[in-house]
Amino acid sequence: MIRSLSGTVISIDDGTVCLDVAGFGIEVFASGSLLSSAVVGEPVQCLAYLQISDSGMAMFGFSNETERALFLEITQVKTMGGKLSITLLRHLGAQDVISAIMSSDPSRLSVPGLGAKRAERICFELRSKIEKKFPSFTEDGVPVHTVGSVDGEVIGGLMGLGFSQAEASRAVTLCRSEGGEREWTEEDLMMSALSRLQRR
Fold first, then answer.
1. CATH number for the domain formed by residue range(s) 66-133
2. Residue 145 to residue 62: CA distance in whole angstroms
3. Mapping DSSP to helix (H, G, I), strand (E, B) and coil, where does residue 60 land?
4. Rounded to the nearest 5°, which phi and psi values hold at 64?
5. Domain 150-199 grouped into CATH 2.40.160
6. Which CATH number applies to 4-62?
7. Domain locations along the chain
8. How does pLDDT run across 5-42, given as a tens digit for each residue?
9. pTM of the model
């Protein structure tokens, strides 16, 4: 099973990133965070899932394990294929999808190709699973960070600069996921997260 990919970005199209992986051009249907971090000509590493179905093979890419795990849960819902599931993560992001499911609000899952009945089915079938799978998220879909921890202090500092808790938490989470096993100091994490928020 392919769990991750590492290569150079060849091109970025509508919803996909093409990676040169050891000489092979691999088309990856990407989440929104992966698309936003990809730059043509630059190396990128992502988590991945290869789906094989009657219609063929498709590779899906994610910035972090939360996105990948959420994607796999969504694809278990009847009539939710991989491409429609990644559309949710491309337009809304993992935190927004988790928030909509945990609050049982299917209207917040409005993305191209996803009708009201499917959105209702996602919320109905996945709420209890999502609550167990992602216990570190609050009901509004924001990751829980311990007050006094490096992440908590950085999020508090960013909120003091005018960013919302969701924006600050998302920036910190993305920095952590893209940094791999890097040991972050509070100052480094603050500067990296702030740079990401300012680019947006």
1. 1.10.150.20
2. 22
3. strand
4. -150, 170
5. no
6. 2.40.50.140
7. 4-62, 66-133, 150-199
8. 999 999 999 899 999 999 999 999 999 989 988 999 99
9. 0.69
